[in-house]
Design goal:
EC number: 1.1.1.44
Protein name: 6-phosphogluconate dehydrogenase, decarboxylating
Strand content: 5-15%
Radius of gyration: 25 Å
Order of helices and strands: EHEHEHEHEHEHEHEEHHHHHHHHHHHHH
CATH class of the largest domain: Mainly Alpha
Pfam family, one: 6PGD
Number of helices: 20
Keywords: Gluconate utilization, NADP, Oxidoreductase, Pentose shunt
Catalytic activity: 6-phospho-D-gluconate + NADP(+) = D-ribulose 5-phosphate + CO2 + NADPH
Bound molecules: NADPH dihydro-nicotinamide-adenine-dinucleotide phosphate, ribulose-5-phosphate
Strand order of the largest sheet: 3-2-1-4-5-6-7
CATH architecture of the largest domain: Orthogonal Bundle
CATH topology of the largest domain: N-(1-d-carboxylethyl)-l-norvaline Dehydrogenase, domain 2
Distance between the termini: 87 Å
């Protein structure tokens, strides 16, 4: 094997690909990046740490010639057709045993299809979720690999080197068969949507109560020093301080309230319904991004249904209630996402190890938080836990904030402050902890109008009644 050959190739030198490649180089791997755009290749080489081995090329065949065998090529390109296009252009250039990794946010069903297609050609294909954004990719992301385990062993030293670390433990582990890596990343993003929505509702309530951006900064900063410690709370504190460079305003106040999305939150909701597993906080977060797009209608509705409610209460008490409700609903968001992974692992035959998933999420990723330490210990005690709400320690954390959560949600309802995801978390909780739900009545209705039959609580079997004939 020639020493002049490179260890690793990257296709797509955008936000993630460029930074992940530079991260690999910083850890001693020689790397080559491909982008059609020559300017991106020059920029890549110019931004490499001095002394590292980084080369940018604009011909794919040149990159493949430069790689050691078996070749290891990752792509970080937009999900969908670009991934298939890259595979099609790589195939004539690769040999049996080479490894292709899709590190983007691909839908797991696309990954399943590609694994099968490439297995026939004896090319190893892995779908790997990467989280941490631009900074995480550069300095240490959370990495969620799934697929071909022998290919994983091939790239494992490199992934362990570049991943975030919690203590000495790298935030990467083999997370299951075929599409498992992308499935876990999809659910990670669903939880990300939920927590971001919950934080934005907390912001809305505190803003309604009159807090300035400076005060919001201080509140979120202090929360990040306590049990709400998390990446998303931390960056939220920073956001409130950012001044606009075009006006005298704080930047957050001049940003349009129409939220964008690239699809992973919606996929989580859609796939939860396929299983089915209930993830209503995630569903609500997706729906609220949709509602945010109804700007013109919301402007009209705000005139039609205007509210004169103003805050008059104890602000410190309210801040504590918002804190506790955010903590409660954040736990519920993780619980729903993890319950979805538990079910998907079995139903879709992916063998997703939940203790490893929560461990990998402890560092580097967008949803990292101190709560993941609690969940890691819960799953280490009971790897087959169907829902973390059934763990004693998690239950005591939930119960410690339950009263304040109820008070806060009552406050939000009375004041007319939108808090749909906070409310969804409590509604799910109250249903989940119900020994008997009112769904016996739904069964009766279904049988009444459609002869759909029902089961009884006292006698086994299936029953139908000719309703209303007494
Ligand atoms: N940004 C983020 O925070 C995160 C993104 N992701 C995922 O990672 C993937 C990449 O995202 P990101 O880096 O942000 O995206 P960017 O848009 O920044 O970069 C995408 C890169 O892919 C290249 N590209 C597009 N189509 C092709 C193609 N057919 N063949 C070769 N190259 C192509 C683009 O080149 P050119 O511009 O020259 O067309 C560009 O360099 C996506 O799946 C995204 O969802 C995952 C985690 C976090
Ligand atoms: O994967 C990510 C972080 O983990 C990406 O940032 C993701 O694309 C964000 O999703 P959206 O654009 O839908 O908000």
């Amino acid at each position: 094997m020639s020493k002049n050959l490179f260890d690793f190739g990257m296709i797509g030198l955008g936000v993630m690909g460029r930074n992940l490649l530079l991260n690999m180089a910083d850890h001693g791997f020689s790397v080559v990046g491909f982008d059609k755009d020559k300017a991106k290749n020059s920029a890549l080489e110019a931004s490499a740490t001095p002394g590292t081995t980084v080369k940018g090329v604009s011909e794919l065949s040149q990159m493949i010639q430069l790689l050691q065998r078996p070749r290891k090529v990752m792509m970080l390109v937009p999900a969908g057709q670009p991934v298939d296009d890259v595979i099609a252009s790589l195939l004539p250039l690769l040999e049996k045993g080479d490894v292709i990794i899709d590190g983007g946010n691909s839908h797991y069903t696309d990954t399943l299809r590609r694994v099968k297609y490439l297995r026939d050609k004896e090319i190893h294909f892995m779908g790997i979720g990467v989280s941490g954004g631009e900074q995480g990719a550069r300095t240490g992301p959370s990495i969620m690999p799934g697929g071909d385990q022998s290919a994983y062993e091939n790239v494992r030293p490199m992934l362990e080197a570049i991943a975030a670390k919690v203590g000495d433990t790298p935030c990467v582990a083999y997370l299951g068969k075929e599409g498992a890596g992308h499935y876990v990343k999809m659910v990670h993003n669903g939880i990300e949507y939920a927590i971001m929505q919950l934080i934005s509702e907390s912001y809305a309530i505190l803003k309604y109560a009159g807090l300035s951006n400076q005060q919001l900064h201080e509140v979120f900063k202090s929360w990040n020093e306590g049990k709400l410690q998390s990446f998303l709370v931390e960056i939220t504190a920073d956001i409130f301080l950012q001044k606009d460079d075009k006006t005298d305003a704080h930047l957050v106040d001049v940003i349009s309230d129409k939220a964008g999305s690239k699809g992973t939150g919606k996929w989580t909701s859609q796939d939860s319904m396929e299983l089915p597993v209930a993830v209503p906080v995630i569903d609500t977060a997706v729906a609220m991004r949709t509602v945010s797009g109804y700007k013109d209608e919301r402007v009209k509705a705000s005139e039609l249904y205007s509210s004169n409610a103003t805050f008059s209460g104890d602000i410190d008490e309210l801040i504590q209630q918002v804190h506790d409700a955010l903590y409660f609903a954040t736990i519920l968001s993780y619980a729903q996402g993890l319950a979805m992974l538990f079910q998907a692992s079995k139903d879709l035959n992916m063998d997703i190890p939940l203790p490893e998933v929560v461990s990998v999420w402890r560092g580097g990723c967008i949803i990292r938080s101190s709560l993941l330490e609690v969940f890691t210990s819960a799953y280490r005690q009971s790897p087959e836990l169907s829902n973390i709400l059934l763990n004693q320690e998690v239950a005591s954390l939930v119960k410690s904030v339950e009263d304040n959560t109820r008070s806060l949600i009552a406050f939000a309802a009375k004041s007319g402050t939108p808090a749909a995801a906070l409310m969804a978390s409590l509604a799910y909780f109250d249903a989940y902890r119900s020994e008997r739900m009112p769904t016996n009545l739904i069964q009766a209705q279904r049988d009444y109008f459609g002869a759909h039959t029902y089961q009884r609580t006292d006698i086994p079997g299936t029953f139908h009644t000719e309703w209303g004939q007494q």
